[in-house]
Amino acid sequence: MQSKMFRFWPHVFLLSFLWLVMALPSYAVEPFQVKEIRVEGLQRVEAGTVYATLPFRAGETYTDEKGALSIRNLFALGVFKDVRIQTVGRDVVVVVQERPTISLVEFTGNKEFDKDYLVRMMREIGLFEGRPFDKAVADKAEQEIRRQYLSRSYFATKITLTATPIDSNRVNLNLAITEGDVAKIAEIKFVGNKAFSSGTLTDEMSMATGNWWSWYTKNNHYSKAKLNADIEAIRSFYLSRGYIEFSIEAPKVDISPAQDEIRITISLFEGAQFQVAGVRFEGNLLGKEQELKSNVTVDIGKPFDAEKANESSQKLSKALGNLGYAFARAEVIPVLDRVGSKVTLVFKVEPGVRAYVRRVNISGNARTRDEVIRREFRQIEASWYDGDKIRASRDRIDRLGFFTDVQIDTQEVPGAPDQVDVNLVVVEKSTANWSLGAGYSTAEKLSLQAGIRQENAFGSGHYIGLNVDTSKFNRQLAINNTDPYFTPEGVSRSTEVFYRTTKPTTLLDTDYKLINQGVGLSFGVPYTENDTVYFRITYDQLRVQDGTNLPQTYKNYVQRVGSSSHTVPVSIGWGSDTRDSALAPSVGSVKRINVDLNVIGESKYAKGTVQYQHYIPLSRKVTVAFNSQLDWGEGLGGNPYPFFKNFYGGGLGSVRGFETNSLGPVDETTKLSIGGAKAAVVSLEVLTPLPGGGNDRTLRMYGFIDVGNVFGESQPFKFGGFKSSMGIGLSWNSPVGPLRLSFAKPIKKSSTDKLEKIQFQIGTGF
């Protein structure tokens, strides 16, 4: 009985307590007219800020609702950590406690990210000096730093934020970072693959378990984004080989207890391989069946290739877009015959409504003038939409080199289905560049090179450049300017002023010197999207300063025309460039022809150059590159060909493995290479990404074969006289320019040739 009473009493107490609470009178403030408002507790915040936030003024009515709203508004300012409102008679007292102000933000232990990067990150979040300290914002900043480290595979990173109070209600913040070791991929395992080995599938991924080059590529560092991209690469690999029903599960990622190793397991289902049985079309082909069907290039009787099917679909859409159907759709639908493992591809064509371009909108160009961009547009406003012209416009704007990103999209005009707006968004980059370099060798000692160029001067699209070289043997000062639209039709104009001196590569201060100075003016006239004709006239003055080691050929020239001569060569040239990239091409070609003719002055001559480059992609990673160049010069009117217009060969850009500019005629007296009036070179390269570098096209290795030589004006041009070499090399589009390193073994050479097996240069093309 007693135990039952003990169990009952707690319920009695609870009910009694609730009854007392409900019976208490309400102490809500009755509305009253405010006589005075006072603010207490302010240190840095102006009282006016508080008064402006309150929803009432002196002389107005105060209510509990207005008091609650006042508290919410004051907290929303983000500068107070406590707010109370008291009423004393008809006075309202606002009592606040300010948040401490951040006096200093420090980082310790950070190595992967520099301090400036972390400071910018904190500022974007709202944690910086002079800002009120908010623990919630600090926690957000801490999580963001941790996320940045996770993105670089630092899973063991620990971050400790310490807020140290100092005088005047301020705090110093210290974010102590313990980075730990980067987590590296120890294993990538595939489950369910039968048609292809795990090694074959791993080759399709950018991530790997590591190799000797991983210190640069970091391909053994885990990244969720890279893993997702690799999963899509594997999916594309299977779909392009007929496995239509291929599927892949979410990868399983296991991290070791020490958080320094990662093991990835990828489970997949291959399914059957389907062969293409046929193709058919549905929808409206606009009466242009044969023209549109020619865009479909899938192979009947071969395994289904999703990439080719999608390319055909895109070609159909582009062909319809070229006819003015801006929102045309050409969807490919595979119809499966699982019994026979066959697939029929159905292309469903929906052209929609033909449209014309109402307006071309440009945004993102803060420095570059609108006209610089608009003059590259091939799509004209108020004309029929043309997909090819829009794509050509985008490529031309991108090739200007003024932007890091160029995006074009087409937007339907609301209420007008037959009109579209073309929106171009650009992201500008800095086009003002300066370079400073130095070199040291036993012969030249210290030499300095400096250059300043502005590729988009004042947003006008003009190029302005200044180059200085203080080399002991080859000095120069050159100033040039190019106006790409000297005329509204796109004729370019270039001007150049130059001063150059050349000395032989010996150590004698008494050596001869060649002083070359002049000015040049050229025009480029485009007549197709890829072809340009060039015209140039140059005034060129050469002065031979006598001294030791002057070659006999040079002496003969001085005896005939004097130590100073003037020429005014006129040039005409043609160039065509269809490459997909200027720095790392994989497809396309370059063709160039140039002829110089001089009939004014002491030397009369003609010279010409023919060059042809071609790039063939053997696969997604391997490219074959072919380069050939023929140079020819001849004196006119019984005059010998001038030595200062000679061609040179040997080294990078010519026949590798031979010393730079060493091929061809040699002066009998000084044994110096003097070049020749005829030259030829043929090169073949096979380029592939560096092993372990994924598909990084900026860093590639190559194997090569070079054949060529230089001949004097009186020497016969004989293929039997060509030198040759073969070897391997490294190509890197570095931040300072294209870098080429080669190791060559001369194949056909003579005992007098100057060899140089290892060669290195920055700024060399092919």
How would you describe this protein?
The protein is of the alpha+beta class and 766 residues long. Helix content is 19%, strand content 42%. The chain has 13 helices and 35 strands. The chain has a 17-stranded antiparallel β-sheet that branches. Strands 9, 10, 11 and 12 form a four-stranded mixed β-sheet that branches. A three-stranded mixed β-sheet has the order 2-5-4, covered by helices on one side. Helix 4 crosses helix 5. The longest helix has 22 residues. The termini are far apart.
Distance between the amino and carboxyl termini: 104 Å
| Helicity level | 10-25%
Compute the number of strand runs. 35
Classify the beta-strand content into a percent band.
35-45%
Structural class: alpha+beta
Low-confidence stretches: 1-27, 437-447
Mean pLDDT: 85
Largest sheet: 17 strands, antiparallel
- Oligomeric assembly: single chain
- Which geometry do the CA atoms define? globular
Tally of helical runs? 13
> Rounded to an integer, what's the Rg over CA atoms?
38 Å
Any chance you could write out the topology, listing elements then pairs?
Elements: H1 2-23, E1 32-33, E2 36-40, H2 47-53, E3 61-62, H3 64-76, E4 80-88, E5 91-98, E6 101-108, H4 115-125, H5 135-150, E7 158-166, E8 170-178, E9 184-191, H6 198-203, H7 214-217, H8 224-239, E10 247-248, E11 252-255, E12 261-269, E13 275-283, H9 289-293, H10 306-322, E14 329-337, E15 342-350, E16 356-363, H11 370-374, H12 387-399, E17 403-413, E18 416-428, E19 432-441, E20 445-457, E21 462-470, E22 474-483, E23 492-502, E24 513-526, E25 531-545, H13 552-561, E26 564-567, E27 570-577, E28 588-598, E29 605-617, E30 623-635, E31 678-689, E32 699-711, E33 723-734, E34 737-748, E35 758-762
Helix pairs in contact: 4-5
